[in-house]
Protein 1
Amino acid sequence: MSSVHSTHPETRSHILLVEDDPEISSMLEDVLSESGFVASSVGSATEMDGVLKRGGIDLVLLDIMLPGEDGLSICRRLRAGSQIPIIMVTARSEDIDRIVGLEIGADDYVSKPFNSRELVARIRALLRRAQGGHEGASAGVHPLAFAGWRIDPVSRQLRSPEDVQVALTSAEFDLLLAFCRTPGQVLSRERLLELTHGGAAGPIERSIDVHVSRIRQKIEPNPHDPIFIKTVRLGGYIFTPAVKEV
């Protein structure tokens, strides 16, 4: 049973809950509404597709365990054609299940049972990052170039040396931008989380490895032998190209 709001003020972010448990959906809608969001809920992938087709959704809160098409499949499908922010919700405790969600393009995740304040903090942090408003954005608004690539913090676009736009999730974009703003520096996973999340609630450090892997797949000539983002044993990562403002 879906509960979809037809109108909402433009200044309020619209969160779509994809959750088949009516009690959890109702609770989450109340929490999000009290926190200043517009909240809608659907119970299946089919219902979700109809809502997203109408537009106006700013973030998807996606449960993994759903009837029919599950959350991981939905996330993979959404990422194939959209960069809408996605937070996965899982009742599974194993890190591997969470990592799989990140590997297929989720921006963040929360585990059931979760603290409602933490969930709201994660949503707000992700929306800020998706809109270019996280704290790291104050470091500069000029486009940056490296090895023929161009990354623009204002339009939040990455363009290849062939001037083709390359799709990145919000988390991937923020991580690559952090690297571009700190070239030649060894950055620990903890430091990268600080740079990309501005001190707000964020995922485990292991998620940095997942996002780095996804970025390498998109920018490295050979992702298996990276030359741009190098791993520093026991240290983290270092971005090797020269970077300049353009």
Note: The CA atoms of residues 18 and 35 lie 19 Å apart.
Protein 2
Amino acid sequence: MKILIINGPNLNLIGKREPSIYGSTDFETWFAALRRTYAARNVELTYRQSNIEGELIDCIQAADGRYDGVILNAGGYTHTSVAIADAIRAVGVPIVEVHISNIFARENYRQQSLTGAACRGAVTGFGLDSYRLAIESFLLPR
């Protein structure tokens, strides 16, 4: 199984940015360990990050037909991007939205997800383990 993880704006700063919310482990270190864990289960993980909305859309479109699933943390675009939501709806690859923090326990403007409404499901509030839980969702029998 091939799964693409796409992180949006400012998520390249995980480990530095607001560690009380996002933790102190940088994503690349955590991703390397995650990749090793899932390789033993025949799951190939790929990771992309961009601060640019159009590049995130390009990643989503390029994933169609190449991956069995996409895990998307659109960062701040979660709450604002009709264009990313439209890209999710336009592709056939299943997408699970992920958030490190519980967006429903944060500021009012973070509690709405335009992108999540277009996704297969969402995992929010379990720290970096939100990504692991999203991977597990793809491994469930359908």
Note: The two ends are 14 Å apart (CA to CA).
Protein 3
Amino acid sequence: MNSTLDGKVALVTGGGRGIGAAAALRLASLGADVALTFQHDRSSAEDVVDRITAAGRRAVAVRADSADPAAVIAAVDRAHGELGRLDILVNNAGAFLLGPLEELTLTDFEQTVAVNVRAPFVACQAAVRHMPSGGRIINIGSNVAERAVFPGFALYAMSKTALIGLTKALGRELGGRRITVNLVNPGPTDTDLNPAGGPDAGTINGFTALGHYAVPADVAAMVGFLAGPDARYITGATLNVDGGFTI
């Protein structure tokens, strides 16, 4: 097993399935102990924990609603308390609410901003209280922050675009502590929410340069790289893992 992250502890929000689960497993494969949050699907989260512990790493699943700031802070503190430290934060949990502008409600707006903008901010704020020199913050955004090719994405794209500013500003602010902050923007990725065999997949594939969806492990590989020692001089950056969707 690769031990680049041996002795490190990571927290992955929304780590029970999809990209979050792949990121949690990738970090564990590199040697980290991993805490992950989930909201509803305890079974999937516990399956990820079981896979990590079977590989010889420690893991814990924490139920937390990312729309609740107190729950986000408690999850960060629990990850630190149960696993003894906190070196890596992956802000992955997200709300994916789409629709025509005139049909979106203020409730939709508040839920999206709470999960996609406020939760990463609150998690970063809580995490840096524990994070040592050399820590890593990795935000998971979306390719639609740079190229929204379909109608109905205004609210989601706006929320993910906010992570660009957060990433750049925190990269500057935390640089003196040798904590790096970077943003990964996935493109079309084969998950439950956007399956590669879905009805719109052919059209979506046509917008990429490579002509096909990513798998979650493709995005997780970038997360693993940014968490490791080879990325120590990268901060404030946006890395697109999108098959050329935005070129």
Note: The chain has seven helices and seven strands.
